[in-house]
Amino acid sequence: MTLDAVLVVSAALFCVGLYGALSQQVVVMVMMGLELMLNGVILAVAGLWWFLAPAPDGQVLLLVVIAAMTVEMAMGFAVATLLHRSRESDMTDTATDLSG
Amino acid sequence: MSVVLGGFFWFLAVVAVAAGVAVFRVDSMARATYALALSFVSVGVMLLLFDLEYIGVITILMMVMEMAIMAIFMIMFMGMNPALMPMSMVHSKRGSMVLAGGAFVVLAGGALLVPWPARRGVPATDLTQSLGEAIMGSKMLVMLTVSPVLFATLVAALVLASPRGRYDRFGDDLRISPPRGPEQKDGQL
Looking at this predicted complex, what is its ipTM? Predict the structure, then answer.
């Protein structure tokens, strides 16, 4: 178990999530992609913390990432609910009002 | 011991990534939810390997609950039993795959090529206690910032998800008195 290995695994998780966030049409599936990306970030931060500087600051950063995940989830569900109520759909393609 | 830990780490890594891939490969949303939960549990156990008991357990508990809620939302929005309905709803599949693959090459290449410095310092004897002391001491500002953000999230999520807002009750100019009840339609006084 080395830092390189941890970072490669976290990069794989991040990129699988990136693929999902870019390719999925259902809002909840897009959220799953974002969650997977943050999953990779959590692992990378934990690995960097453990192998480079195991001070408490790194743990606080992890808590902030987990809080960001919570915010993303709550707002995502709220937007999905609003979208479903107003458009009877949960697809990203029906929510392109702000696209340039 | 380190060989066993290393083997266990790679086992968890394979499970985490394979479950992550399965999220977008399985043919039902419910299975996708369970696959994502499995990926999070694997990462949570990896955190435990770094002696991060508190954060590892938080990650596992939070994500298992979150995925259960997510499954409920999916059933609610899809209006069917998503475990039984094959589905594939994707767009720009090829472009997304190229972008994700390119990002992986860049990130993994950086991870392997960067000469990482040697470890500085040693972990505290009790990591959970040291985290608590940091939150309540030198890093209190971080938590003081996160708290209002979470509160604002709660308020914003409720406002977005609420079926009736103030414009529904008081009209477009917010001057209708008494406010409309839930049974009154738009334009009715």
Answer: 0.89
